[in-house]
Amino acid sequence: ARASVSLKAFRTVQFAGLTDVSIAEDIPVEGEITVPVGPHSPEDDYSTLDEPVKDTIMRDLKAVGKKFVHVMYPKKSSTLLRDWDLWGPLVLCVSLALMLQGGSADSKDDGGPQFAEVFVIIWFGAVVITLNSKLLGGTISFFQSLCVLGYCVLPLTVAMLVCRLVLLAGSGTVSFIIRLLVVLAMFAWSTLASTAFLADSQPPNRKALVVYPIFLFYFVISWMILTFTPQ
After folding, report:
1. What is the pLDDT tens value at each position of the chain, 231 positions in all?
2. 204 secondary structure, DSSP code
3. In this protein, which residues make up the domain named Yip1 (predicted)?
4. How many domains, in total, are found in the chain?
5. Dihedral in degrees, nearest 10, Cα atoms 110, 86, 136, 122
6. Residue 92 is part of which domain span?
7. In-domain check, residue 136
């Protein structure tokens, strides 16, 4: 926009130690006024308020599936940290608890308390590790850490599924060796995947203090899977 201002007035300019100087003339003032406008992105017009429920569910399912892929192929990526959610960890926790339900126990119950035990161990352990990470100076948020720890239970959930299939064929020495190898491999996978996402968010001199609780967390879950025997 162009603005033209014509000043038709006498102005008196006073300077210290000098005589008054009066200017009596038309002084045209011209210039350009520009308003900086940032680049317009199509995302600015994107809104999910009028989106069909089906599209919303499919978008969330695709986001969860992408996070599963990142866990199965662990690499340094900010996807789990930037777009965190707790749907995937909840599904994995419930699935693992259901598969561990009905194992042999000292009591003669139907295995109901075992579901609660698994559920509490996973979520309480994840919360403790997250608090430990924050107290050691971690730079990620509380729910970002829970998201990573929960999604990295995926390899152990796969190990539990394989172990249950192996137990259908028998529970001898060969079966135990197969289950041991599968659980060890998935335990290492879960630990490496979680540290790949969380290690860079910790101070360099405190990474070992963060990795050790993660190691114990997945070790306890792995031990529960390995010692599972159906009734």
Report:
1. 434 444 344 444 444 454 555 555 555 556 555 555 555 444 444 556 677 788 788 887 887 888 888 787 766 555 556 777 888 888 898 888 888 876 544 444 444 447 788 888 888 888 898 888 888 877 778 888 888 888 889 999 999 999 989 988 877 889 899 999 999 999 999 998 888 777 667 777 777 788 888 899 999 999 999 888 776
2. G
3. 74-224
4. 1
5. 10
6. 83-102+112-227
7. yes
